[in-house]
Amino acid sequence: MRILLVEDEVMLAEAVRDHLLAAGEAVDHTESIGDAEIMIRGTNYDVLLLDLNLPDGRGIDLLRVLRRNGSAMPCIILTAQDQISDRIEGLNAGADDYLVKPFDLNELSARLSAVARRYSGNPNPFVALAGGVEVDLAGRVVLINGAQIDLTSREWALLDQMVRRPGQTLSKRQLEEALYEFGAEIESNTVEVYVSRLRRKLGRDVIKTVRGVGYRVGG
Amino acid sequence: MRMFSTKSLQFALTKRLTVMVGVFWIAGSLLADFTMYHEMQEVFDSSLVKSAYRYAPLMDDYLKHHGRDTATVVVESPEQGENKTGDRGEGDDEIGADYLMYQVRDVSGRLLLRSANAEEEPFSAPLLEGFYTDDHFRIYSAVVKDGARIIQIAEPLSHRREALIASVSAQFLPIIVLIPAVIIGIIFAVRQGLQPVRRVRDDIEARSEGNLAPIEQDDAPDEIHTMITAVNRLMEKLDAALRAERTFTAHSAHELRTPIAAALAQTQRLLLELPADHPGLKRAQQTEESLKRLSRLSEKLLQLARAEAGVGTSPTGKNQKLGTTLGLVIDDLERVSDGAGRIEWDGKNAAALNANIDVDAFAICLRNLIENALKHGDENQPVVIEIKGSNVIRVSNGGDVVDPRDMTELTARFKRAQTKARGAGLGLSIVETIMQNTGGKLTLSSPRPDHVDGFMAELWLHQS
């Protein structure tokens, strides 16, 4: 998933970013609403992690603007405001979930997965694919006929992106966005390289190529 | 409707006004009666004098024709109540008894003539011109015919008393009837007069602790205008102080939570990045545990600070629906490891739940009770949440019975039950403080009702 993290506490933001990167997500980080607006205009993020108290305004105002403009980007609020009225305000403004600081990084990962699953239209974290392949999105586990297969972070990020939208063809550009954090170098054949690696590990029938369009799993 | 209090201003004013009106009325009546008594005496006396001198020629004439040696009855008087037949004049058909009686004497005191109702015994009055009063009669003696004859007209004193009593009674009877009407009038007038004061009282009474809006004083009388202004100023200051305290608490929450969050996240990253056999791993785990404990403690202290700052009542001062808040809190706690799959709640009656409490304060109470139940209850039994009526919430759990000696101390600060579970010992104290702020009640029981074990906390929320 490509995630935008809007958080002005640098130490916390670094830890969150490192944690998500280690889990194979692509994370862009900014400390202000102004920058966040520019980045959202330029990139299709899968999830927005949004702090509420930011140097140039309230995160909730950014969320309201996004929803008013028709954005359906999933959003999880990360905040130190622990009152239930703040939470109700956040959810009413269009947030999908609300995590109060301090939070457990694993809890954040679980909430991210739940929100992403909800948006993919498949709330079930267990997905069965061709060739006896089973994917547990919540546990980040891949099994072939019951045997666990080890994937690197980026292999997982690519597979995760496709498994969340079974039957839907994703373009190379969409898959690139899921793979790389903002500003990282993207080589022209990177997606092909990782698709090839996944096919070697999971079998050739799991990921199908739709010529001239992109790739898909299932369907 | 409000009960009539004997301590009320209305009661005091009504009582004093009634007493004063009564006293002045009685004093006025007594003065009138005193005056009337003297006037009546004058009229009656005048009547005696006039009668004596009018009778004089008649008696003289009568004596000339009937001789002078024996006393004689002149005219029979009608008895009291006797009908006077053939009365052609206006007035009563009945006439009273003839109260006046007379005796005519010569200068030696010999009785020459008397009225039918007069005794043969001479009156006790001396044979001198003027009034005389004995025990039974008021007597006037008229000396006529150059002192040769004395006419004495007597009137029984009982008649005068009777006339006076009849007059006074006629004056007081209507007053007795009018007094209740006057009291009702006074009550009504006082009520009307105190209407602006009552409006201010009702305004203050109707508002909850959280409502610090100024009291309206447009139609307040001058006497309480200054008082209302002073109260409004005081409430303004109190409102500002409470706002400052709440803002401070909110900022403190942010300032405390953010660095703890950063430290915890960095420590968790360190734990994930350190090799399994690294000597610093154990220290990192201890640091993570301490940070989590610090986080829980800071959360409880901030909740306590909010409770101590007087938060609690609904900002609108009225009941508000709490079902959504209840759902959010339960949903939140079901996600944490302690609560996963252990909370039993069917959502029944949630929509009916409403009370005069701030949603944040309600959430704090509920969260503490459920966390306590999850933490201290039997892990193999569910934490059951029930709603009774529209303002009572029960949170119960299985587990050991709490020692009755400990029950009373559970709501004391930093007091924990005899349990292995970790906690700050503040949860129930926070709930108790918020319930006190809002006029609600927290009741604790162990064992829980209909069971031989466990614990139950019951929140009785205040409804306005």
From TrEMBL, chain A:
<feature type="DNA-binding region" description="OmpR/PhoB-type">
    <location>
        <begin position="124"/>
        <end position="219"/>
    </location>
</feature>
<dbReference type="InterPro" id="IPR039420">
    <property type="entry name" value="WalR-like"/>
</dbReference>
<feature type="domain" description="OmpR/PhoB-type">
    <location>
        <begin position="124"/>
        <end position="219"/>
    </location>
</feature>
<dbReference type="GO" id="GO:0005829">
    <property type="term" value="C:cytosol"/>
</dbReference>
<dbReference type="Pfam" id="PF00486">
    <property type="entry name" value="Trans_reg_C"/>
</dbReference>
<dbReference type="GO" id="GO:0000976">
    <property type="term" value="F:transcription cis-regulatory region binding"/>
</dbReference>
<dbReference type="Pfam" id="PF00072">
    <property type="entry name" value="Response_reg"/>
</dbReference>
<dbReference type="GO" id="GO:0032993">
    <property type="term" value="C:protein-DNA complex"/>
</dbReference>
<keyword id="KW-0597">Phosphoprotein</keyword>
<protein>
    <submittedName>
        <fullName>DNA-binding response regulator</fullName>
    </submittedName>
</protein>
<dbReference type="InterPro" id="IPR001867">
    <property type="entry name" value="OmpR/PhoB-type_DNA-bd"/>
</dbReference>
<dbReference type="GO" id="GO:0000156">
    <property type="term" value="F:phosphorelay response regulator activity"/>
</dbReference>
<dbReference type="InterPro" id="IPR036388">
    <property type="entry name" value="WH-like_DNA-bd_sf"/>
</dbReference>
<dbReference type="InterPro" id="IPR001789">
    <property type="entry name" value="Sig_transdc_resp-reg_receiver"/>
</dbReference>
<keyword id="KW-0238">DNA-binding</keyword>
<dbReference type="InterPro" id="IPR011006">
    <property type="entry name" value="CheY-like_superfamily"/>
</dbReference>
<dbReference type="GO" id="GO:0006355">
    <property type="term" value="P:regulation of DNA-templated transcription"/>
</dbReference>
<feature type="domain" description="Response regulatory">
    <location>
        <begin position="2"/>
        <end position="116"/>
    </location>
</feature>
<feature type="modified residue" description="4-aspartylphosphate">
    <location>
        <position position="51"/>
    </location>
</feature>
From TrEMBL, chain B:
<dbReference type="InterPro" id="IPR003660">
    <property type="entry name" value="HAMP_dom"/>
</dbReference>
<keyword id="KW-0067">ATP-binding</keyword>
<feature type="region of interest" description="Disordered">
    <location>
        <begin position="74"/>
        <end position="94"/>
    </location>
</feature>
<keyword id="KW-0418">Kinase</keyword>
<keyword id="KW-0902">Two-component regulatory system</keyword>
<dbReference type="InterPro" id="IPR003661">
    <property type="entry name" value="HisK_dim/P_dom"/>
</dbReference>
<feature type="domain" description="HAMP">
    <location>
        <begin position="191"/>
        <end position="243"/>
    </location>
</feature>
<dbReference type="Pfam" id="PF02518">
    <property type="entry name" value="HATPase_c"/>
</dbReference>
<feature type="domain" description="Histidine kinase">
    <location>
        <begin position="251"/>
        <end position="464"/>
    </location>
</feature>
<feature type="transmembrane region" description="Helical">
    <location>
        <begin position="172"/>
        <end position="190"/>
    </location>
</feature>
<keyword id="KW-0812">Transmembrane</keyword>
<dbReference type="InterPro" id="IPR036890">
    <property type="entry name" value="HATPase_C_sf"/>
</dbReference>
<dbReference type="InterPro" id="IPR036097">
    <property type="entry name" value="HisK_dim/P_sf"/>
</dbReference>
<dbReference type="GO" id="GO:0000155">
    <property type="term" value="F:phosphorelay sensor kinase activity"/>
</dbReference>
<keyword id="KW-0808">Transferase</keyword>
<keyword id="KW-0472">Membrane</keyword>
<dbReference type="Pfam" id="PF00512">
    <property type="entry name" value="HisKA"/>
</dbReference>
<keyword id="KW-1133">Transmembrane helix</keyword>
<protein>
    <recommendedName>
        <fullName>histidine kinase</fullName>
        <ecNumber>2.7.13.3</ecNumber>
    </recommendedName>
</protein>
<dbReference type="InterPro" id="IPR003594">
    <property type="entry name" value="HATPase_dom"/>
</dbReference>
<dbReference type="GO" id="GO:0005524">
    <property type="term" value="F:ATP binding"/>
</dbReference>
<keyword id="KW-0597">Phosphoprotein</keyword>
